[in-house]
Design brief:
Elements lengths: L5 H16 L2 E6 L5 H10 L4 E4 L3 H11 L17 E6 L3 H9 L3 E3 L11 E3 L2 E2 L7 H7 L4 E4 L2 E4 L3 E4 L7 H9 L5 E3 L2 E7 L2 E4 H4 L3 H22 L7 H19 L6 H19 L6 H9 L9 H11 L3 H12 L1
Antiparallel strand pairs: 1-3, 1-11, 2-3, 4-10, 5-9, 6-8, 7-8, 11-12
């Protein structure tokens, strides 16, 4: 039997104990992250998540050992591949994913990396002074020239297509143009919580979009409940308010005087009186003339379109009015 170094046994035992006790365990991909950047990311995550790096064989052993007390953890070992590490946290998998996603930053290319997207250089002036830089730009494949004492890119150019390797000459030019095509950071490949494995595609959700959809659905359900008269603890108040408004409107139109309707009815009668008085101004006394002068004038109608719009508003049914009100309460 091959001898196993004691430090390896201790590292596996320590990691398996940590994994067994922690609420959430994840596997992160650290490929392409420079060592100094990785240390900074690890420091920034302190208190939220702990990152442990070991050889993949040791990571798998630790996960298998921890699975004896936490069923399902052994499936997480299937994700261990390439340059990876274990992350442990008390955050739920979705919050943990966002925390790790926030570590991503733009990095310059050195040459030889795969372009994650098309790298396009737009036409226009550059910050460079005329000189050897023109030749460097042209060597990289850019249509550079000197115009009016300035170095310009004459037309838009896709320097590197998505999926292609970034040439060394192109990488140097991109760095000079302060274009950083690479994104590096800690990618959560999968996470384990309470017997379930959450894959990356499940965790990478737009929480703002999802919450917007939830609020939209809640608002639609609320409006529908108001419209069809379905009482709940949430809808009962606006439903009572709607019923009160309808009852008040009916009482005013029917001429039923109450302590609430009498003021409205008097105001309505006063407006009708002023309207009638304006039709025969010759026989009015001075007080009534003054009332007509001081009364606010209705806005002038600009044309036939305003009349059509007014007629359209008059034809609104009671059910449509209720629908509009329910939308207002929503």
């Amino acid at each position: 039997m091959a001898h196993v170094a004691s430090w390896k046994k201790e590292a596996v035992a320590d990691l398996s104990t940590r994994i067994a006790k922690c609420k959430v365990v994840g596997i992160i991909d650290v490929h392409g992250v420079p060592a100094p950047a990785f240390q900074t990311m690890r420091t920034n995550l302190r208190g939220k998540a702990d990152i442990i790096m070991l050889k993949n064989t040791l990571l798998k052993l630790a996960l298998t050992e921890a699975a004896k007390s936490r069923k399902g953890l052994e499936k997480l070992a299937e994700v261990v591949d390439g340059q990876c590490a274990v992350v442990t946290s008390d955050l739920n998998p979705f919050r943990l994913f966002r925390q790790l996603d926030a570590t991503k930053t733009k990095m310059p290319a050195k040459g030889g990396e795969i372009a994650p997207d098309d790298i396009e250089i737009k036409a226009g002036e550059t910050p460079f002074k005329p000189g050897p830089v023109v030749g460097e730009l042209q060597k990289a494949g850019l249509p550079a020239a000197i115009e009016q004492g300035k170095v310009v890119i004459k037309k838009d150019k896709i320097l590197v297509k998505k999926g292609d390797k970034i040439p060394r000459d192109a990488a140097l030019v991109l760095s000079k143009l302060e274009i950083y095509p690479l994104t590096v950071g800690l990618n959560l490949s999968a996470a384990f919580e309470e017997g379930m494995i959450y894959q990356k595609d499940v965790l990478a959700v737009d929480d703002v979009k999802i919450m917007g959809q939830v609020w939209g659905a809640a608002s639609g359900a609320f409006n529908l409940s108001i419209f069809i008269g379905f009482p709940t603890t949430t809808t009962i108040r606006p439903m009572v308010a709607l019923a009160h408004m309808k009852a008040l409107n009916l009482a005013v139109n029917a001429g039923i005087a109450t302590h609430e309707t009498v003021k409205i009815m008097l105001a309505k009668a006063n407006l009708q009186m002023l309207s009638l008085a304006s039709k025969a101004p010759a026989g009015l006394d001075e007080d009534l003339k003054k009332l007509l002068t001081d009364a606010p004038k209705p806005p002038e109608k600009k044309g036939s379109e305003d009349k059509k719009e007014e007629k359209k508003e008059e034809k609104v049914s009671e059910s449509e009015a209720a629908a509009g009100l329910s939308g207002l309460f929503g």
